[in-house]
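pls design
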């Protein structure tokens, strides 16, 4: 099956559901970035929790429709994989903000950098989703490559910050910040997982 068969009108339902998940990821990443800059932890935590809840319902809707649909524009496992991976990105963002709330941790410069990376990754993923729908294969691949580069930046940032943490003597602070940094870096990994899934679909259906 080619990409053109994927986007014919009767098959748009699953693509549109996945696009809604992509938009939820964008909203969550923007809320994370705003939280890191204005410290409105309670407000943004609630906002991201609402997005996370909405996306859980959306993912369940996708799974339910898959069970009811015999012929789909993509293989069932491809749709399920994307739906699950988008959910992982949003879960990672919420987990980070929730941990900061529970630990009473204020954003650090490194956390702001992580948030910038995640926001940029999610924007590239959104671009890739739009590009694959419009059959802009080269543009989609460029977006996915950029997601990978950003994930490498996050790896380097994590290494730098962990090294700095272990130079301090406050064990509790080290424990809290290390866990939050690792949640942020894991979220960048999840963004890369989404882009890899999109690339796999691009190769499979082109």
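designed seq:
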């Amino acid at each position: 099956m080619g990409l053109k068969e994927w986007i014919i009108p009767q098959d748009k339902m699953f693509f549109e559901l996945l696009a809604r998940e992509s938009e939820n990821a964008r909203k969550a990443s923007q809320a994370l970035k705003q939280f890191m800059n204005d410290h409105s932890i309670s407000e943004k935590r609630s906002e991201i929790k609402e997005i996370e809840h909405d996306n859980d319902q959306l993912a369940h809707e996708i799974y339910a429709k898959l069970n009811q649909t015999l012929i789909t524009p993509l293989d069932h496992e491809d749709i399920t994989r994307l739906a699950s991976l988008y959910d992982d990105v949003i879960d990672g963002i919420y987990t980070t903000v929730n941990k900061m709330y529970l630990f009473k941790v204020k954003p650090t410069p490194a956390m702001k950098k992580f948030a910038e990376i995640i926001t940029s990754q999610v924007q590239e993923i959104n671009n890739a989703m739009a590009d694959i729908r419009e059959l802009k294969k080269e543009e989609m691949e460029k977006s996915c490559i950029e997601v990978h580069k950003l994930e490498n930046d996050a790896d380097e940032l994590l290494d730098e910050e962990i090294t700095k943490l272990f130079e301090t003597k406050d064990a509790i602070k080290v424990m809290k910040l290390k866990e939050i940094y690792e949640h942020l870096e894991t979220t960048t990994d999840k963004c890369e997982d989404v882009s890899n899934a999109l690339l796999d679909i691009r190769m499979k259906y082109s």
